[in-house]
Amino acid sequence: GAGVSQSPSNKVTEKGKDVELRCDPISGHTALYWYRQSLGQGLEFLIYFQGNSAPDKSGLPSDRFSAERTGGSVSTLTIQRTQQEDSAVYLCASSLLAVLYNEQFFGPGTRLTVL
Amino acid sequence: SQQGEEDPQALSIQEGENATMNCSYKTSINNLQWYRQNSGRGLVHLILIRSNEREKHSGRLRVTLDTSKKSSSLLITASRAADTASYFCATDAYSGAGSYQLTFGKGTKLSVIP
Q1: Residue whose C-alpha is closest to residue B6's, from A59, A40, A103, A101
Q2: B5-40: per-residue pLDDT in tens?
Q3: Is A101–B50 a contact, with Cβ atoms under 8 angstroms apart?
Q4: Which residue in B62, B108, B71 sits closest to B87, CA to CA?
């Protein structure tokens, strides 16, 4: 596709439910990043993939969060047993490689609201 | 923790004026990037400056980098209402196995009044 796409654009869920967020990176981009942005805040790094492997999972806030990437393309971020503090915009980005001087291209984000 | 910190947190100017935003960071960097975000959605890359560069221009944007002070500034000249957005600086960080990731600041919210 022309850019990074994410789905759904908005998700409202009840506390305790599981949610899955999807990211389609730009075709050919090997690096994929997940960030979280709470209201009025900066971006909080969650995890990144180089191909299908995730060298750095240090940003995942708890073991309720997990992510996978298959075929070096689509990635899903799963949040189990959602809590109200999980409410945020989840942004996905991709870049050609996870190397120096690489620009990241962002998707429009998924706004998650946990009631 | 946040590597880059933007200053001011919010800035309001009249259309046609120049807007200056600053970013300070803590550790050595290889490059610093500026991004723009409209309405809390996806970010758009504006400009990248390498650690051995002092100034870079792109259209109405001018970025400076002072590695001795660990700071950068973004200047938008002749601002337009369409420049209203949040602006973030991002610095690279080595994440192991030859890979790098970006660390973002909290951003400066710019409002340009027509």
Answers
A1: A40
A2: 888 999 999 999 999 999 999 888 888 999 999 876
A3: yes
A4: B108
- Residue of B24, B28, B31, B101 to mutate for A, most A C-beta atoms under 10 A: B101
Structure token pair of residue B82:
């369409």
> Each residue of A41-100: pLDDT tens digit?
788 889 988 888 887 788 899 999 999 998 889 999 999 999 999 999 999 999 987 666
Cβ atoms of B81 and B113 closer than 8 Å: yes
What distance lies between CA A85 and its chain's CA centroid? 16
Show residues of chain B in contact with A103, CB under 8 Å.
33, 45, 48
Q: Strand A105-106 relative to strand B99-104: parallel, antiparallel, unpaired?
A: unpaired
Q: Do B44 and A106 touch (CB under 8 A)?
A: yes
Residue of A nearest to B50 (CA): A101
CA Rg, chain B, in Å? 14
φ, ψ of residue A10 in degrees (nearest 5): -135, 140
The DSSP letter of residue A70 is -
